[in-house]
Amino acid sequence: MRIQIDNADKTFFPEAGYSKGDLADYYRRIAPTMLPHLEDRPLTLHRFPDGIDGVNFIQKSVADHYPDWIERVTVDKEDGRITHALANDADALVWLVDQAAIAFHVWLSRHDRPHHPDRLIFDLDPADDDFALVVDAARAVRERLAALDLSAFVMTTGSSGLHVVVPLDRSADFDAVRDFAERVAERLADARPDDFTTAHRKAKRGGRLYLDIRRNAYAQTGIAPYSVRAKPGAPIATPLAWDELGDAKLGPRRFHIGNIFRRLAQRDCPWADIDRHRQSLARAADRLERA
Q: Please, how many CA atoms are within 13 Å of residue 200, restricted to the half-sphere of its CB?
């Protein structure tokens, strides 16, 4: 079906001049590339009814007015149960944009095995605009993971940093995945204490890059690949090839809805085969313990 966008002319990104209709057109067009990264994952929406300069809110649960054809899943939460929307097709994705969803955040697990993630995320969060340090950190994480015989992928966040993502085979639960990620991050921080930290509180980071592994937990989310961010210029969380980290023009907001399709016309999505690299943490955890 063709989803009708209400108030399509409403400006959502004033600086760039992009409207709600432009946003919907982007998601409709990117859907074939984006949907594999959304499929069967409970969604958390960041909604901006009047654009990025207006009131905004986070929505996890399905509202009463959602049409029946929007897929949903009910999962456990700390004090009961909650029903999340799924975006398994382009119509669902665009309909959620019509509800003023700009950014899509997804679980690291799929709903059929919610306690067993198929993604591990290192969120590289700089203290300032030192993107060169972010790139350095991403390479350091990749090198440490490669020494443990793990493949990793990298993505701009569309905000300030990079995500390094490890595809998993779902043999480990969240506790095991988080423990592994924490130990890797701590060893990196110990090796370079002037550059990296695992301190949760900003006051304790001392201007260092934060190796954030807190997303690796049940019901936590990460920004979805190809999601727009609610930032000036409509930047996009964009999967990269590792060699692109050497591009002097690269930054966390390098790609946006005005140039992303030119990029994809020139090269295939670097994450197109990410699920073919799903791997177990068991041997890597053993190697890490012995190292």
A: 4
Q: What is residue 87's DSSP assignment?
A: -
**pLDDT, tens digit (0-9, with 9 covering 90-100), for 224-241:** 999 999 999 999 999 999
d(CA 144, CA 37): 25
Interhelix angle 20-34/90-98, nearest 10 degrees: 160
Cα dihedral 188, 192, 196, 197, rounded to 10, equals 70
For residue 45, how far is the Cα from the chain centroid? Answer: 12
Distance between CA atoms of residues 51 and 39, nearest Å: 26
Domains and CATH numbers, the chain: 11-113+220-234+251-268 (3.90.920.10), 119-218+276-290 (3.30.70.3300)
pTM of the predicted model over 0.70:
yes
DSSP annotation of 132: H
- Amino acid in position 129: D
Spell 84-98 as b/e; 16+ CB within 10 A means b: bbbbebbbbbbbbbb
Using one digit for the tens of pLDDT, what is the confidence trace for 117-142?
999 999 999 988 899 999 999 999 99
Q: Is 167 helix (H, G, I), strand (E, B) or coil?
A: strand
Element (H, E) at 110: none
The DSSP output letter for 229 is -
- Chain centroid offset of residue 126 CA: 16
